[in-house]
Design a protein that fits this description.
The chain is globular. The model has no long low-confidence stretch (mean pLDDT about 95). The strands form 4 sheets. It has a 6-stranded mixed beta sheet, with helices on one face. A 5-stranded mixed beta sheet has the order 4-16-15-11-12, with no helix packed on it. The chain contains 4 helices and 16 strands. It has about 220 residues and is α+β, with helices and mostly antiparallel strands. Helix content is about 15%, strand content about 30%. It starts with 16 loop residues before the first strand and ends with a strand. The structure holds the ligand CC(=O)CC(=O)C(=O)O and magnesium ion. Ligand LVPGNMZS binds next to strand 1.
């Protein structure tokens, strides 16, 4: 039976957020990471979602919160071991997303060989735009994404620079983690990641498609 839930508010579904790291060579290099031979994956919980009108909260244990602007893929039809040639049929649409990252904590986790949960999965670590229906982006492998902090351009990239394409990622991920309707895949960030502070205003967009604005706050 068809679902009665509305994917326009996919963040309310409580589904998985699967993130791909180091998918742009220029970003892997700026953080002195090797360019990966296979996708680097990590997860955020649904409690990471935040939508426009609410603030991004700096986690109390971090002093170096970074923005990472990314194209998000919203899954419309679930599946396991989806072949690359069928992958695009599993997409319902897209969203512009930020993979907010406590970089100081991530660096410490890397040094200690610990998972990135505290660095990547805290409340409000996944700001998202409105849902963008699939038909609005003819070629998700060729869109420009950008991010400004207080009106200054910090990130600008094109999804054509991704190392692993969207069909490849859907196929690769679904072989390991079954994809479900309402899941979101964050496809990685281009270069230019940098620190944000309390009271900063972040603006980000997919050129010609969507833009969004978030304020950064710190819990009292
Ligand atoms: C080093 C990272 O934080 C990887 C990541 O999230 C990315 O988008 O690249
Ligand atoms: Mg990221």
């Amino acid at each position: 039976m068809a679902s009665t839930r509305n994917l326009n508010r996919f963040w309310e579904w409580g589904r998985k957020i699967i993130c791909v790291g180091r998918n742009y060579a220029d970003h892997a290099k700026e953080l002195k990471n090797a360019v990966p031979a296979e996708p680097v994956l990590f997860l955020k919980p649904p409690s990471a979602y935040v939508t426009e009108g609410s603030s991004i909260m700096v986690p109390f244990y971090s002093h170096n919160l970074h923005h990472e602007v990314e194209l998000g893929v919203v899954i419309g039809k679930g599946g396991t071991a989806i072949p690359q040639k069928a992958a695009m049929d599993h997409i319902a649409g897209y969203a512009l997303c930020l993979d907010m990252t406590a970089r100081d904590v991530q660096d410490e986790c890397k040094t200690k060989g610990l998972p990135w949960t505290l660095a990547k999965a805290f409340n409000t670590s996944c700001p998202v735009s409105e849902f963008i229906p699939k038909e609005k982006i003819a070629d998700p492998g060729n869109v420009k994404i950008w991010l400004k902090v207080n009106d200054q351009l910090r990130q600008e990239g094109n999804t054509s620079q991704m190392i692993f394409s969207i069909p490849f990622l859907i196929s690769y991920i679904s072989e390991i983690i079954t994809l479900e309707e309402g899941d979101l895949i964050l496809t990685g960030t281009p270069k230019g990641v940098s620190s944000v502070q309390e009271h900063d205003e972040l603006q980000a967009g997919i050129e010609g498609i969507v833009s969004m604005k978030f304020r950064v706050d710190r819990p009292q």
